[in-house]
Amino acid sequence: MSFFKKIFSSEKKETLDKGLEKSKTSFFGKLSKAVAGKSKVDDEVLDNLEEVLVSSDVGVNTTLKIIERIEERVSKDKYLGTDELNVILREEIAGLLSETNVGEETEFNIPQANKPHVIMVVGVNGVGKTTTIGKLAYQFKKQGLNVVLGAADTFRAAAIDQLQVWADRVGVPLVKQSMGSDPASVAFDTLKSAVSQNADVVIIDTAGRLHNKINLMNELTKVKRVMQKVVDHSPHDVLLVLDGSTGQNAFEQAKQFTSATEVTSLAVTKLDGTAKGGVVIGISDQFKIPVKYIGVGEGIEDLQVFNKFEFVDSFFK
């Protein structure tokens, strides 16, 4: 189909293919069983396919949409062989994701309208938030941008220390205070520092607690309000980091955070270590929030801009 044209470099594509290997192997293992002994796509195959998609963490609502699309193809074409199912799935999932504007970027770009461009990063502890911030800082710096980090997760000393390690590794400044400091104060100092240094990008870490949604909402609202005293309309992007290896739990976290604060983009991490890569398809479809980045390995280069065409192409390769 015209959907699938080469966009990524071969090296980047190879990393994506490798990162999705476990998900792909698991999915096609289940798919083979679902169509075993069948020559055409009938009701039984569709029922089995529905089970495969749900168990691959695509999500119930997105699975039903995909099944509906395939049913339309079956009724229109009258006869579809099971050997064509892979191609049909690939086309229909790409078509579904193409109905939104998610995942069309190929590079780590920032809008030129805002300087500095302020990204506030949210997400529960353990999802790869700090690592994502470090890798993002690396990618932006590689493009020649002036990057400043802010350690506003003052709830855990380890969070500040981890961010310092990444700041040192990438070679960018980190604004921090002691553990227990007011996160809004850290955010304020970070933006002040960024403005004085004529920074292009500011990335601010925030506390990853969901045990009390009201407190989280109040804290994030306060951080935003203080930011806007220094840089108009900041943060320009609220990036929610989700651990892809948690499957349906990632959906739940997305629901919780989107109800606690205004999330404008998503990063899905740890896809290389899991067979639950289908979660990216479901999250892309279900939330009206773009998946901007995906983590497909532990290396510093292994955070990629999410491109839906390349993702679906690798998943069904």
TrEMBL record:
<keyword id="KW-0675">Receptor</keyword>
<dbReference type="GO" id="GO:0051301">
    <property type="term" value="P:cell division"/>
</dbReference>
<dbReference type="GO" id="GO:0005737">
    <property type="term" value="C:cytoplasm"/>
</dbReference>
<keyword id="KW-0132">Cell division</keyword>
<keyword id="KW-0963">Cytoplasm</keyword>
<comment type="function">
    <text>Involved in targeting and insertion of nascent membrane proteins into the cytoplasmic membrane. Acts as a receptor for the complex formed by the signal recognition particle (SRP) and the ribosome-nascent chain (RNC).</text>
</comment>
<dbReference type="InterPro" id="IPR027417">
    <property type="entry name" value="P-loop_NTPase"/>
</dbReference>
<dbReference type="GO" id="GO:0006614">
    <property type="term" value="P:SRP-dependent cotranslational protein targeting to membrane"/>
</dbReference>
<dbReference type="InterPro" id="IPR042101">
    <property type="entry name" value="SRP54_N_sf"/>
</dbReference>
<feature type="binding site">
    <location>
        <begin position="269"/>
        <end position="272"/>
    </location>
    <ligand>
        <name>GTP</name>
    </ligand>
</feature>
<dbReference type="Pfam" id="PF02881">
    <property type="entry name" value="SRP54_N"/>
</dbReference>
<keyword id="KW-0378">Hydrolase</keyword>
<keyword id="KW-1003">Cell membrane</keyword>
<comment type="subunit">
    <text>Part of the signal recognition particle protein translocation system, which is composed of SRP and FtsY.</text>
</comment>
<dbReference type="InterPro" id="IPR013822">
    <property type="entry name" value="Signal_recog_particl_SRP54_hlx"/>
</dbReference>
<keyword id="KW-0472">Membrane</keyword>
<protein>
    <recommendedName>
        <fullName>Signal recognition particle receptor FtsY</fullName>
        <ecNumber>3.6.5.4</ecNumber>
    </recommendedName>
</protein>
<dbReference type="InterPro" id="IPR003593">
    <property type="entry name" value="AAA+_ATPase"/>
</dbReference>
<feature type="binding site">
    <location>
        <begin position="123"/>
        <end position="130"/>
    </location>
    <ligand>
        <name>GTP</name>
    </ligand>
</feature>
<dbReference type="GO" id="GO:0003924">
    <property type="term" value="F:GTPase activity"/>
</dbReference>
<feature type="domain" description="SRP54-type proteins GTP-binding">
    <location>
        <begin position="290"/>
        <end position="303"/>
    </location>
</feature>
<dbReference type="GO" id="GO:0005886">
    <property type="term" value="C:plasma membrane"/>
</dbReference>
<dbReference type="Pfam" id="PF00448">
    <property type="entry name" value="SRP54"/>
</dbReference>
<dbReference type="GO" id="GO:0005525">
    <property type="term" value="F:GTP binding"/>
</dbReference>
<comment type="similarity">
    <text>Belongs to the GTP-binding SRP family. FtsY subfamily.</text>
</comment>
<dbReference type="InterPro" id="IPR036225">
    <property type="entry name" value="SRP/SRP_N"/>
</dbReference>
<dbReference type="InterPro" id="IPR000897">
    <property type="entry name" value="SRP54_GTPase_dom"/>
</dbReference>
<dbReference type="GO" id="GO:0005047">
    <property type="term" value="F:signal recognition particle binding"/>
</dbReference>
<dbReference type="InterPro" id="IPR004390">
    <property type="entry name" value="SR_rcpt_FtsY"/>
</dbReference>
<keyword id="KW-0547">Nucleotide-binding</keyword>
<feature type="binding site">
    <location>
        <begin position="205"/>
        <end position="209"/>
    </location>
    <ligand>
        <name>GTP</name>
    </ligand>
</feature>
<keyword id="KW-0342">GTP-binding</keyword>
<keyword id="KW-0131">Cell cycle</keyword>
